[in-house]
Amino acid sequence: MAIDRFIDNEVKGNEVVLFMKGTPQFPMCGFSGQVVQILDYLGVSYKGLNVLESDDLRQGIKSYSNWPTIPQLYVKGEFVGGCDIVREMFQAGELHSLLKEKGVAVKDQAPA
Q1: How far is the C-alpha of 97 from the C-alpha of 77, rounded, in Å?
Q2: Is residue 6 scored above 80 in pLDDT?
Q3: What's phi and psi for 20, nearest 5 deg?
Q4: Strand partners, 73
Q5: How far from 84 is each of 3, 25, 38, 100, CA to CA, in Å?
Q6: What gap in Å lies between CA 58 and CA 19, rounded to an integer?
Q7: pLDDT band at 108 (very low <50, low <70, confident <90, very high)
Q8: Domains of the chain: which residue ranges?
C-alpha cells in the first residue's frame, strides 16, 4: 500500500517526525499544539506532517503505529507516543533524556 510506504519513509528518513493535525506553525488541535510547544521548548528540529491534508495519511498512521489518536511522535524511527505520553515524559525529564540518548540535538535543560 502506497501510504504505508510513504509513512515508513517519513518515519525512517527523518530524525524526529510529528504526525499532527495542522502544521507546527498553525496547529489545528490542542493536543497537537501541546506537543509542538514541548518540541519547540526543547529546541528540537522536527518534521510536522498534517494528517488533515489526507484521509489516507490520517487513517494510515493509526494503522502503522497501532495507536488510535493523533498526534504521534517518532524519534529515530521509533514510536514515542501521543500527547499524554509526550507531556508526561517531558514533565519527568524523560523526553529530554530520550532525545539526547538517540543523538537528537536539544537545548540543555537547567537542573530542576
Answers
A1: 17
A2: yes
A3: -145, 170
A4: 18, 81
A5: 26, 21, 12, 20
A6: 9
A7: confident
A8: 2-101
The CATH code of domain 2-101 reads 3.40.30.10
Helix axes 94-101, 30-42, angle to 10 degrees: 60
Nearest Cα residue to 100 out of 38, 44, 37: 44
pLDDT in tens, 37-91: 999 999 999 999 999 999 999 999 999 999 999 999 999 999 999 999 999 999 9
Q: Which of 34, 14, 25, 31 minimizes the C-alpha distance to 75?
A: 14
pLDDT at 109 over 90: no
The per-residue pLDDT for 1 is 64
Asked if 73 and 80 touch (Cβ cutoff 8 Å), the reply is: yes
